[in-house]
Write a structure and sequence with these properties.
- The chain is mainly alpha-helical.
- It folds into 2 domains: 98 residues, Winged helix-like DNA-binding domain superfamily/Winged helix DNA-binding domain (Arc Repressor Mutant, subunit A, Orthogonal Bundle), CATH 1.10.10; 38 residues, no CATH class.
- The protein is built from 7 helices and 3 strands; from the N terminus they run H-H-E-H-H-E-E-H-H-H.
- The chain has a 3-stranded antiparallel β-sheet.
- Strand 2 and strand 3 form a beta hairpin.
- Helix 1 crosses helix 5 and helix 3 packs across helix 4.
- The radius of gyration is 18 Å and the shape is globular.
- The N and C termini lie far apart (56 Å).
- GO terms for molecular function: DNA-binding transcription factor activity.
- It comes from Actinotalea fermentans.
- This is MarR family transcriptional regulator.
- InterPro entries: HTH_MarR-typ (IPR000835), MarR/SlyA-like (IPR039422), WH-like_DNA-bd_sf (IPR036388), WH_DNA-bd_sf (IPR036390).
Length: 168
């Protein structure tokens, strides 16, 4: 049976190639700035950032792994490193179902507040400074659609995080 895969047209191919180039170049650029300025990698910074969003500064490990794009194992290893630095604390919760929550400590919040300005400057330099407000809205819509197709569970957690961040 012949392969009837619909090949990418010219615009799709160019968009795909551009997306792949961005996915390969943006993470190392962000990582380099964070390591240079705060000694954290992007994954560790993302953990602290996500923990700072809820008023309790506590998040269950499973949704936190989804929000940060890591496995539970990777999150656990990173949490251990952050715990050693006094930036986070683990809590075992046994209410309905046994789970582990990660909490951002006061030291962690102060560390994040010191690291955030440099990270935001880099995000602006790498992404937002070269986009119009309309392009930013399109970028949001496009990345949400791609995330929903690639990882619906992550998209659902992201939607909740976006709603929660709007309340800040």
């Amino acid at each position: 049976m012949p392969d009837e895969t619909p090949w990418l047209d010219r615009d799709e191919r160019h968009a795909w190639m551009s997306l792949m180039a961005m996915l390969m170049s943006l993470p190392p650029a962000v990582d380099a700035q964070l390591k240079r300025d705060s000694g954290l990698n992007f994954f560790e910074y993302s953990i602290l950032s996500q923990l700072s969003a809820p008023p309790s500064r506590r998040v269950q490990m499973s949704p936190l792994a989804q929000l940060t794009g890591g496995s539970l194992s990777r999150l656990s290893h990173a949490a251990s490193r952050l715990e050693e630095r006094g930036l986070v604390r683990r809590h075992v919760v046994t209410d309905e179902a046994r789970c582990t929550e990660l909490e951002l400590t006061e030291e962690g919040m102060a560390f994040l507040e010191a690291a955030a300005p440099g990270h935001v400057r880099e995000a602006r330099r790498l992404v937002f400074d070269s986009l119009t407000p309309d392009q930013v809205r399109h970028l949001r819509d496009i990345t949400q659609a791609i995330t929903a197709a690639a990882a619906p569970d992550v998209a659902a957690v992201l939607r909740d995080a976006i709603v929660a961040s709007d309340d800040l």
